[in-house]
Structure formats: C-alpha cells, structure tokens
Structure to design on (1324 residues):
C-alpha cells in the first residue's frame, strides 16, 4: 500500500520532496487516531508525488501538547506495528516534539526537555528511523549539542540529525544564520551525523541577499530546505509558484538531487486539499528543474569521486596499472592539445628545413603520446602538401616493464614497427646515447604533471635528460605554473579527520602510520566547498632547464578572507604551456574544456580557522628536497586581536608525505 | 564481443564453469599469435557456455617454453590492449607459468623461478586480474609460501591465489592431500587471500574414499575443482559424462554455486572441438544440478549471514529494536510450538477444574506470545466444545518502554483491550503483586533463550519471579539443555582474527577494546566448517527453581578428534522443553524443522589445534557469576607426545565477555 510512495521515487531521478507534518488545529482525540494512520498517510502523499513525510516521533497527539511544571507530557504514541518495518525507514523521517527545548531559560523546561529528548531519540532508534529533524530555537544551544553528542556516543546507530534554521535571524538575536549553524556544529565536534536545513521565511536575513555569503552554504551539508505554503503565490496562469525572491534563493542553494531534499509544509493553514499539495509540489519542482538538468550528467560521472580524498600518484616509485593508464588515455581534449603542440613544433622545424627529425617520448606509458605524435606527423605532411621530404624517428622511453609489453603490442599491431621502444628510466638515457641506441632529440615530449603541476616530479625527471639534449631541442611542455585558492569545506575537513576509520580514501594504507593526516597534499574532486578568495599564482618551472637551476621553490601568497567564514585549506591547480600558445589548464577560472585527467589538489590546514572578521591570510609554502625525496612544507600567518599568529609548520622535513626520487 | 561470456552467466544462477588453457602441442609461432587472440577466445568459449577462462599470465608462448641454466625464458606476452580492461577482470583468471618452481631442488631453477614469479605476479597486478592459479608441486613449498606472503604484504591489491592440488598423492610422497594444503596455508599465515582447488585425478587418494575425510574440505575455502577430459566417459545414450566415482566426489564437494567454480581442461588432448567442450560442460553441470536445486533457496536467505560473526544479544542491558522483534516474530514453527505447549498446559488445568486461570507472559516484547496464548485459549475452548466455563486473564510484562507502545497498540487494535500490560523488569514483580496490579500466575511463559540456551540469562530472570509463583505454577519452558560439538573451520578462525579490521561482525564495537577476540561466545550461521565428533550434552536448567539452587555450572566433555584434522572451536546448540513432550531444538541431529530464530553459538579456541593423530580432547567449561554479571570460562586438555597439555584459560573472570545482570 505505502509502496505507492515510490511512485515518483526511485526510477525517475526527481528531487526527494517530503511533507512536513505539524497539525495544530486538531482535537486531542483526532490526533490520537491520526497517529495510527501512518500507512494511509504515506500512501496518500505518495500518490500525490511525495517521496517521504516528516512526522513527529512522538505522534501529533504528543507534539501538540502543552507541558507544565508537573512535568507531564502526553506519552509517545506512534505505534510501530501499524506499518511494515521497511516502510518506516523508507518513507518516514521524524521530528522532535516542538516543545522540547533543553536550552530554555526556564530550568524546569530545560531539565524536562533533556529527559524527553532521550525518550524520543530512543524511540527513533527503536523504529529504525534514519533522520530526526530538530528546529534550533536559540542562537546558542550548548545543552542540545551535548544531548546529541551523548546520543551519538552511546548508541551504535546510523541515525542522522537534521538541524533546521530559519532564514531570518529573529530567533537568533540578529546573528548571521550561517554563524549560528557553524557554532552549533562546532559544539557537536563537527560530527558527520549532523546535517543542516533552512526553513525559508517570508523576509530573508541580509546574508541571503549576498552572493558571497550564500556560497558558504555550498560548503555545508545542506541536506534540506523547508518551504511553507505561505511563500507561494498565484502566477498569471493562476498556477501556484514560489515568490521570485524565494525561487531565486532555492535555485541558488538546491544543487544536488541525490543529497538534498525539499520539505513542504503548511504551518498556518492546516486544511489544504490534495490539489493544493500537488500544486505546491509542482511549483517547487518547476523552480529547480533547470538547475538539475545541467547537473545530472556531471553528477552521474563524478558521484563516486566527489569529496573522496586520493593520495597523489607516485609514478617514479610505483609502476602504474593498466586500468590507470586506461583511464588517463580517455582524456581526448588533453591529447588533442598535445597533438596540436607536436604538429606546431614539427612545422617550425620543417620551416627551418629539418629533414630527419628525432622525437623522444619520455614516459610513454601505453603509447597515447606516440599516437598523438603519429597523428601530428600525418597532419604536418598534409600541411606541407607533401612538398617537403622529411622523416621523423620516434623513440618511446618507458621504465614500467609491464607497459613495455603494451607498447610492443601497439608497435606490432598499430604502428607498423615504426617506433623504437626503450625500457629505461629517462634519467639514465645517457647510456643509450653512448651505445647509439638513441639519438639526440629535436623534440622531447612528456606528460609528467600532477594536480599541482610539479608534484609528480616532472622538474626532476626532465632535468634528468639534459645530458642528451641538443642546444635547441624543443621541450613539450615548455613551462608550467601552479595556483592556490583558499577554500571553506566542512566535508573535506571531516573526511581527512575520519580517514583511517571510514576508508573514504583509495590507497589509504599508503599513508604513513604515524603521519598527521592533514599534512598531505591530497587529490580530490571538490564537491561540498566554496572559494574564499581569488586564485593566486604560486610556482613556475621552465624547460629545458639546461643551466640546472634549482627546483627549490618558495612562495608567500596573500589572501583576503571574508567575515564569518571558515578556512579549511587551499585548493591547488596548474596550467601548462605545451608549446607556444598551446596550453592545458585546470585553473578554476579558465579550465580547459572537458579535460578530466586532473582533479584539483588540496593543501589542508590542521584545524578549521574561523574568521569572525574579514582578514588577511598569508599562505607560505616551500618545495624542498634532499637526495631521496621532494616535499612541500606549509603554514599560514594572520593577525588576531592585533597579534601575529603563525600556524604550526605542516609536513616539516616531509615527515608525513614526500615524493620519492627513486 | 566478449560480452557473450555472460550468456550463461549472471542472470541464470548456474555454476561458474571455466576453461583451463594449457596448449602443449602448438608451435612457437602459433603460440605467439594465440596470445594476441584473447578477445576471440573469450567470445568463443562464452558462446559455448563458459563463464571464464584460466589462461597463462605470461601467455602460452612463455608457458610452454623450456628454461635452461642460462636463465632465459621467453618474455611475458599477453598484451593488455587487445581487450577492454573490464573484460580481463570479468572473464580471465590467470595461471602461473608451469615451469616456475621456487622450491625446486635445483638451486638455479629455484632462484630463477623466484625472480620470474615476481615478474608474472607484477604483470597480473598490472592487468587487474582477480585470481592467479598456482599448481603445488611438492609436499612442502616454503619458498613459494614466502613469495606469496611477500607479494601480499607489499602490494595493495585484492588479488587472490588459487592453489591447485591433485587428488592423488604421487607428487606428495603419499602424504594426505588435505595435510599438504593445510601445511601450505599455515606457511602463508592462513591468509584469507588464499583459496584451494582440487584437480581430480584418475585414481583418487585414499582420503577421497572416506566420508569423514572428505568432510574436511567443507571446512576449507575450496573455490574450484578442475576436471579433465580424460575423466569423462560415454554414457548409454552416448552422452559425455563423468565416471561414477568422480561424479560422486564432485557432488560431495561442490556445494555452493556462488563461491565455487568448475574448471574444465584437456591436458592431453589438445584438439577437441566445440561440440566436445559443450558436452563436457553439460556433463559436469548435470552431475551437480540436483545438489544445487536443494541449496539455492537456503543460500539466498542465509548468504548474508553465512560465517558472519555476531555478538549475542543482551536483552537485559540493551533494549531491542523494532526490527529485531520483527525478525524474531517471523519464526512460525517456534510460536506454533509455544501455542501447543500453552494449549496443553491450559487443558491440563481445565481437567483439574481450574476456572479462572492467570497467565503471565514474562518479556512480552511486541506480543508474539500473547498471540500464541490467545490462539491456545481459543483452541482449548474448542477442545472442550465450550462445555467448560473458564476465563483466562493475561498479563504481559515487558521492561522495554518502546515495546510497551507496540503492546498498547495491539491491545487496542487486535486484542480488544483484554490484556493487562505491565511495564517492569520481571525481577521486580513482587511490587506489582503487593499493589494488586497482578495476581499469582497459574502459568508463566517466557522466551529468554539464546543460542547456547542459558546465555541470555534465562535462569537468572526466571529465578527472579520465584516470589510471585504458586507452588504448582506451570513454567513454560520447564527445562533446557545445551550441547557442544568440536568443529574445524579455517574461515571462522580468519573471521575472528580479522574482526577489527574487516568489520565482518555486526555490533563489533561492542567488543571491548582490550579483549581477546577469541575469548567470546559468538553467534554464527555456520557455513564453511565440519564437525569433528558427535554432539555432547553440557549444562541443564530446570524451572521453576523454587529452591533457588545455584546457576553455577561446570562440565568437562570428552571428544575424540580424528587424525589429520584441525580443531577450531566448539559449536553450541540447545534444546528446550516447553511443556511435557513439546520441545524446540537446535541440536544438529534433531533440529526443529524450519526453526530459524537461533543460529548456533561458537566457543573458539585461541589457536587452531592441528591433530596429526587421532586424539582425545577434554573441553572444560564453567558458567560463573558475581553480583553484576555472568560469564563462561573455558580451556581444553589433551595429550601430546605423552605429555598432558592444558590450553590457556579463556575469558578468565569474564574479562573479554560477560552478560550483565542489569
């Protein structure tokens, strides 16, 4: 019967919309009967198109009761046996009784609330409910936070708390609404069982008029938005639709069908009919539809990677697997740019009347750059309409013995044995030059860049071939720069903190046992985050580096962090010049279209830094090395109450993370 | 193209049958070409009905080569790029080159083999292969074991080893084949990445003629059986079928479609045609079909529980959840027996001319025993054809406040408010008797038994109601006994050892941090195991225990363990007499049909005990208590080389596990 709930649910990827129950105008007796009709209620709302309901955990009968100093409330009354156990978990979220207020200034209310909080939460656990909604009532709720912490510590269940805040600040002594939430979750140890919801109000707080301040909610686990009937108006065609201002805010905040929910309600009009429910549903869905069309495809592909921390590859010390090569080879935009760069370089050489061109691919993997080179050569022949006679000799250098087998196969089956395959570390090519197994190249091509550009040791690898270069050898790439941007993100902070327990990092066992989890450069598809300032340039490397100038680098980047925000770390990007004006970029403002090989990097801080006022943050980073390894060290500086604060130096001497030179 | 492999695969739940490649009679050149045809090979075998192939990881070209003292072997040649990466993982298992023999008495072969082992395993990891098959060549293979251990320690991959042994012992100096495997996996630290396979041989070793000895393989991760063309004969209808002796053995060993695989081969007849392949496939499937019909339903239901360790419930100190009650309430055979017992007891009272019968249900939960009682009363009325006037007053006592809500709901909606619901611990009922909220019962009914009978503190709970009983109160249940059986099981040993890392235990965090993982009574659906002796009786409890005789118990049970077996622990069962001859039993030899509320219990040993010779094992167990808790302590005694050995006392003073009295 309640299966009808899934009518608009699983198959069609529509946002999850729930109905929020708060029937004020109902007699005691009716309420008691109502609380035994959950199956019918679910079925009815399911038929309309809702996918769940939010119902008082103690029943309406109890939810609406008046408490008094005798400390009597009506008992919990929402019998489990009225509906199959699986339907409770699927279709019902619960809300704490509205009179429960552990932080009430009246001591007896606070005490009684604490006791009844435990009863209701115990009953929610008994029912197997997934989410319990609690409305924040004060700008500070330390006792509620403590009750939540105690519940999560003592119970072994997967239950989540949905904390609801209004979008105005009357309740909160005019405090910023985000700040109230931030303070509350901080009291709850930024626990990942806590989610936030916004109850749209008729008049919105100032923060919801500022694009920048709205962005902060994208860095929070904003799991639902409650919209009341009172915020709907009749449109021209007399259809029910959200007011323009609420519609705009909803479009801005509702980004993710899978993680976010809409919660419709009618707080002051109890007796709406089904037609109105349906109109409200359609009105709110219309409003977010266009948002979601854009995002669904992206989400499907990226969903499994979103906010999942990865350890950067170390291709120098670990051989890559076939599947890793396979993934990277799918990146068409990347190899088209390479092809273009190689073609342009070839043409430049041909214009200088080169006839026998030597091309060495350094780190050929399974051959994508060989393919790009062969295509570039074919194109160059066409450009010159076959009027220039020239030959190109391709050497493919690769140190991974397994990838050599793939290269040999391609050579036989696809490249007509035209490529010379050399199994060697590129830093040992002098030997091959001496034995005349290779020749000095006119062009060298490599793809050794990581998410932060140099972090897979491209500078060191390419410096290692200096001995075999001519004075005028063209190096593709010829230079690269990296960039940093301060970000806010609760999720990423949680994921790093919980790394060892939650296994949310592939190759997590490569993290050293004793290391600070925050002292790592991670690779991560940024999902729940926002930028706190503009992106700034950090390091640069030029090739060929025939003078062997040092690859030590340091930089101090100054960022301006807005008031009422929380700095989590710095997102890392890069931009590479392959040849002349042919570039690849992951810079957030000018990302090469459809390039997907690189997720951003992330330099986390050890602690979240709350900025109550606008402030300057200086990010200091060094790229250091010794004989065995290369590593980054970083810390921040800022002023607090007129005092200069330096954070602890992270990853000192590469103790937590380093890139091995062998 | 290779998608055809799934033709007989995913949807139809048919055993996974693979083809084992070992083409001896092939030229060097043909082998080289063959190794580049994997996609076609997969497609062809898929069309016939095979679901995977086992192919040499280095290619046939290399597999067949002769090695010599110059330490040259043909290079690995099985190019990854010839087939989509996902098909390798789905359709191809690999076999190590047959000449690799790290334990060869020839030192150069051993050294060279170690080196080539690493190359081939590195290539398997590169390809992303799930399983690598290795044929054991010696009765002892310590160097191979070390190579496997090193590979698993250093690589971070999910790859499994399939260790193949023949079913005769020519290779193994006439040692028991199971023993050779047991010694080998012991050298590999009984690692759970190791699986065993049996290659059926024409003449079978003696151990395969003994039912008892065959049982040992059911306690091992026997993941595949290889059957060669030479073991097939033509039947009367000229169909290809396994010889009777091999058919019988296969039926005995092949128990699980999901975890076990068949591997067909033709080691000495290279050029069979597709028709013969299909005949072999059908011949072997026919043979195991009837086995599987029996087991499929059972597997589907039990699959997620099989060999998964559970911590016994503690209903006295933890309130149960709705979903737990819901599961237990599904057990129809159990409540039908209760109904029968209650009815018989009622009839006995009626024959004694009782008119107003008082019935108290102790620990009513959500009411299944109330339902059983109401049905029993209705039946009793029918039996006496309504000729006897009698009334039955039912009291339902329950301490879980959440379940009280369910009871009240049932009382209103289903029981016409005929039941008196008392929220109380049953051990505090004297108060209710004094205040006349209850009356002294003529019958008390409870269902407080755990997998080992008394382990959920039924004795203590029922002793706690002695004060409210009449002299002749009927107690349902009236007695229970528990039983122990020694078992062999590698899987359960592994699961306990890896408990904290692999999360294969629900409620694992209830295990005390510092406790010995083996010093727990677990509850587990026994899957990969075998019994090593008959089941023996341990403790007994009688109710009502009006003399308050102690619930301390001790027992020493003597078991006879067969030669060449490995004792892992003791399976625990119980049998309860509800009333007169109405019983429920989980005793392995007389389990009540379709009863599913109780999986067996398990008392593990700290170490696996290998028994080279038949021996007597004395299992000593005590049930002890103090004011707060009850616990079991256990150890074993046996003779070794004429010396009496005592194992360490497990769970001394309940340090690892105890049942709380409040």
């Amino acid at each position: 019967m309640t299966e009808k709930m899934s009518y608009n649910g699983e198959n069609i990827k529509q946002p999850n919309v729930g109905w929020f129950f708060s029937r004020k105008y109902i007699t005691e007796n009716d309420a008691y009967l109502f609380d035994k009709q959950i199956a019918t209620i679910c079925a009815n709302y399911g038929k309309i198109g809702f996918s769940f309901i939010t119902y008082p955990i103690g029943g309406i009968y109890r939810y609406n009761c008046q408490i008094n100093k005798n400390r009597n409330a009506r008992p919990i009354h929402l019998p489990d046996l009225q509906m199959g156990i699986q339907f409770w978990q699927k279709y019902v979220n619960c809300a704490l009784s509205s009179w429960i207020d552990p932080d009430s200034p009246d001591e007896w209310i606070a005490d009684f609330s604490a006791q009844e909080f435990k009863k209701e939460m115990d009953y929610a656990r008994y029912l197997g409910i997934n989410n319990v909604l609690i409305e924040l009532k004060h700008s500070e709720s330390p006792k509620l936070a403590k009750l939540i912490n105690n519940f999560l510590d003592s119970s072994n269940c997967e239950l989540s708390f949905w904390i609801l805040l209004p979008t105005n600040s009357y309740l909160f002594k005019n405090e910023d609404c985000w700040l109230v939430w931030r303070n509350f979750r901080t009291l709850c140890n930024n626990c990942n069982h806590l989610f936030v919801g916004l109850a749209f109000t008729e008049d919105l707080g100032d923060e919801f008029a500022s694009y920048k301040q709205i962005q902060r909610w994208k860095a929070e686990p904003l799991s639902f938005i409650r919209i009341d009937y009172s915020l709907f108006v009749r449109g021209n065609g007399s259809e029910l639709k959200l007011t323009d201002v609420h519609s705009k805010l909803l479009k801005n905040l509702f980004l993710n069908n899978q993680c976010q929910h809409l919660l419709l309600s009618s707080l002051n009009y109890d007796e709406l009919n089904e037609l109105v429910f349906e109109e409200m549903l359609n009105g709110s869905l219309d409003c977010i539809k266009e948002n979601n069309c854009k995002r669904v495809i992206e989400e499907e592909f990226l969903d499994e990677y979103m906010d999942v921390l990865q350890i950067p590859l170390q291709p120098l010390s670990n051989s890559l697997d076939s599947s890793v090569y396979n993934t990277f080879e799918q990146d068409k935009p990347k190899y088209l740019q390479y092809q273009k760069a190689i073609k342009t370089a070839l043409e430049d050489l041909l214009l200088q009347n080169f006839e026998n061109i030597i091309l060495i691919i350094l780190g050929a993997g399974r051959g994508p750059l060989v393919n790009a080179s062969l295509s570039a050569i074919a194109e160059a022949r066409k450009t010159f309409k076959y009027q220039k006679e020239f030959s190109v000799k391709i050497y493919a250098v690769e140190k991974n013995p397994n990838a050599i087998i793939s290269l040999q196969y391609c050579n036989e089956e696809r490249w007509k044995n035209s490529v010379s395959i050399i199994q060697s570390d590129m830093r040992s090519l002098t030997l091959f030059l001496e034995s005349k197994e290779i020749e000095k190249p006119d062009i060298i091509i490599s793809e050794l860049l990581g998410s932060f550009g140099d972090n897979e040791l491209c500078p060191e690898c390419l410096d290692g071939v200096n001995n075999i270069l001519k004075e005028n050898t063209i190096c593709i790439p010829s230079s690269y720069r990296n960039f940093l941007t301060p970000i806010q993100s609760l999720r990423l902070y949680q994921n790093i903190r919980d790394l060892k327990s939650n296994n949310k990092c592939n190759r997590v066992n490569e993290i050293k046992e004793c290391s600070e989890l925050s002292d790592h450069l991670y690779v991560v598809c940024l999902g729940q985050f926002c930028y706190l300032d503009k992106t700034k340039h950090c390091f640069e490397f030029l090739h060929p580096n025939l003078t062997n100038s040092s690859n030590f680098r340091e930089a101090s980047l100054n960022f301006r962090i807005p008031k009422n925000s929380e700095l989590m770390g710095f997102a890392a990007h890069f931009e590479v010049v392959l040849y002349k004006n042919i570039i690849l970029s992951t810079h957030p403002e000018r990302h090469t279209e459809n390039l997907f090989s690189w997720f951003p990097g992330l330099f986390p801080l050890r602690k979240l830094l709350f900025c109550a006022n606008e402030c300057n943050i200086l990010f200091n980073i060094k790229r250091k090395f010794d004989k065995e390894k290369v590593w980054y060290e970083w810390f921040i500086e800022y002023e607090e109450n007129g005092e200069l604060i330096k954070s602890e130096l992270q990853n000192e001497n590469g103790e937590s993370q380093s890139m091995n030179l062998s």
Q: What stands out?
A: Residues 429 and 435 of chain A are 10 Å apart (CA to CA). The first strand of chain A starts at residue 16 and ends at 20. Residues 274-302 of chain A form the longest helix (29 residues). Residues 1-12 of chain A have pLDDT under 50 and may be disordered.
